[in-house]
Amino acid sequence: MEQQPNSNRRNFIRNVSLGSLAALSLPNIVAAATGEKKAHAKKVTLKKDAVILFQGDSITDAGRKRDNSEANNPGALGNGYAYLAAASLLKEFPDKNLKIYNKGISGNKVYQLAERWDADCLQLKPDVLSILIGVNDFWHTLSGNYKGTVKTYRDDFTALLERTKQQLPDVQLIIGEPFAVNGVSAVNDKWFPAFDEYRVAAREIATKFEAAFIPCQAIYDKAEKSAPGSYWTGDGVHPAIAGASLMAASWMDVVKK
Amino acid sequence: MEQQPNSNRRNFIRNVSLGSLAALSLPNIVAAATGEKKAHAKKVTLKKDAVILFQGDSITDAGRKRDNSEANNPGALGNGYAYLAAASLLKEFPDKNLKIYNKGISGNKVYQLAERWDADCLQLKPDVLSILIGVNDFWHTLSGNYKGTVKTYRDDFTALLERTKQQLPDVQLIIGEPFAVNGVSAVNDKWFPAFDEYRVAAREIATKFEAAFIPCQAIYDKAEKSAPGSYWTGDGVHPAIAGASLMAASWMDVVKK
After folding, report:
1. Residues in A touching B253 (Cβ below 8 Å)
2. pLDDT level of residue A18 (50, 70, 90 thresholds)
3. Which of A14, A230, B138, B178 is 20 to 30 A from B5, alpha carbon to alpha carbon?
4. What pLDDT sits at residue A41?
5. How far is A80 from chain B (nearest CA, A)?
6. ipTM value for the complex
7. What is the pLDDT of residue A11?
8. Which residue has the higher pLDDT, A31 or A216?
9. CA distance readout (Å), A198 to A133, B191, B234
10. Contacts of A223 in chain B (CB under 8 A)
């Protein structure tokens, strides 16, 4: 499995001069190195019979069969990172009797998760809830058809998680960072730096809610060193198999072994 | 990743008395320990731009979209072990520019592979050809609707591979062992010991053609120690996600790193 976060940490530490390190306390050095403070080190623990729910937009949806509501059903899990993570989970934790669901829906922004949250999250009573949302919250503003801002994203996402924690106080959260691969098809310079604010918001929300965090942008940035962006994502937004596979590996890294 | 073959080897060596070991030469000890002689240790090497083809029956098919003939397309790879192996391959070998196809078809026996071999194998010119076939060659005899024997299976499979090697002399072969999990739904004592002969035949054919070998039966037998058979396969024949994930991991074990 890829050890993206560790490599990033190593690269950072290599790049920081001793002088600047001396000015920081050790916890701050680690926080600066990971760039993610507490959220990054957070892991989830799988208890027996745990229910694991993947939520999000098309990246999570990945062509899942919506007419099947069984747990651990390959069609119902789609063919993206959620399915690949499920395959690793079910292989590695056979004694846990895990029940894994994917309820991602293509095109969703945060407010659309909120609209279907009772049926598609709270009623399933997940022990582990993994959410990757945000690229549409930005992308759909480019056409002028959606007027939400990064404040809308941050406020809606915060409200959604507060509502979730109220109903499911013991839920363990995993938040995936929205990402975009510049120069591949749908993604160009017009996205930046505005899109980066959504990444920052997701990371801050992960910290606030003590969620484990999947640093997707770093995953793709690093991946581009070994193959072009178009190898990892078809259009800069949707993962190719290779990208989904990297994401699933990083998702597995936040599960306590 | 699971290291099934090595564990089996270790268990065997632990169980063999020193006296019986002394009567064998070292290569024979290793061969006896693996139970698979040369075939088991065989690995495939991935060259740049390699074409990898998965062939077989429903276990390989796994709901793939037949109207899509693109390489590395998630829908076209189905959602079984072939897709999971493809996801690992594409993640681990980004510099190889691999082209991966799945042409498994549900219900197929060896003679049906032969009927569609020109279009669904030879024309794709695979560098690595992975075949898992045989459960239907036995299973369909139980209803009396198919009259083939294990000799039919062995002869047809041998002829298919001879034809393949003639057209593609450099192809690297991977052969998966047909498997059945007794006591789960479709599989019961009536299958045995007759079904085991198909496993033996597949293994011998792998040795004869110097194919890498995936010992699927051992994978499922070992898996039953950590969760019931029905966790790994829904009906004793078709892998659940967990079973497909184990198979993909073993498939990856025969790829030279």
Report:
1. none
2. very low
3. B138
4. 77
5. 8
6. 0.85
7. 41
8. A216
9. 10, 58, 42
10. 94
